[in-house]
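INFO worker-7 received task bundle
INFO bundle size: 2
INFO processing item 0
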Amino acid sequence: MEQILILVLAGLAAGALNAVAGGGTFISFPALVWTGVPPISANATATLAALPGYLSSAWAFRHELRHRGPMGMRAVLVAAVLGGFLGAMLLLATPQKLFAGVVPWLLLLATSVFAFGPALLKSLRRGGRSLSFPVAFALLLAVTIYGGYFNGGLGIMLLAAFGLIGFTDLHAMNGLKNLVSAVLSLVSVATYAAAGLIDWHAVLVLGLASATGGWLGAHLSKRITNIALLRAFILLVGLGMAVVFFLRG
């Protein structure tokens, strides 16, 4: 019952944070580890728990996805599928002990991107820069491989990548971000499930709680006036989780 309560609270918090400002993985992944789920399995389970939110968000932005950008939809989806599969295979090839050692660095990286991503996006939009197609595709593929390997901070990394590629419509970028996150998560989760990495009992509790938290967060977000304070709280959570994992070795 104690483990179920932890997962329910973590799912509610993660879903609400994702709905308002992102960063829910900083809550859901450590909660799974603390309830006894091995790190690699916890990563796979947290990705599956976040998938319904990605799908619903992508559907909400379906009209914005019609806007044309510097990279065609087919190329974006190819990068998502390929990156999700390669990232998942890389995770399967990583020994449990090695992944446990890499986790705090991944949390630190995701927290840093979450902190500086918005400023980077503003700078890119002002500069009006764009990349050649091969470089743009390689960049997007690298980010999706990261997403297939470790889901934390994926959203803001995708937004930064789209900004570098040359997208300027923020609504279209958000739609693409959600679509790419959903596609690569579907591919990576299918790979995780085939390898037996999903903790189905934990994902049921966490997924239902995350969906509820997302619904509550969407309504509460309309009443939140100080987004900067909320982002600061999420950053403190991310840094705190990274420190805890560093101390745990």
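INFO item 0 finished
INFO processing item 1
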Amino acid sequence: MNLPMSFVMAQAAPAAGQQGNPLFSLALPILLLVVMFFVMIRPQMKRQKEHRAMVSALAKGDEVVTNGGIAGRVDEIGESFITVEIAPNVKIKLQKGAVQQVLPKGTLKSS
């Protein structure tokens, strides 16, 4: 009975003596969070900032494409909604955030 107990103690002893610095054990998760920030979160924040700037710069007469793929010309701009004319005498009201892209002037006439 003495032999198996000493065998277990002999295996457990080196593992207890090899405890490293806790800073090294936290280095990998911290490194992963930093990489995830620069790969995923930062580019998304940059796109959101560009979209907000584009939406705030909308003016009457701009040609836009919505998230649903509807192209038209901005007719009215309100606080949070815009009116887009998609055909002669056909106007729709959209949220400003639904604008995906501002087209160069004259794009709708050429298509």
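INFO item 1 finished
INFO post-check item 1: The beta strands are 63-66, 71-77, 81-87, 90-95, 99-103.
INFO post-check item 1: The longest strand covers residues 71-77.
INFO worker-7 idle
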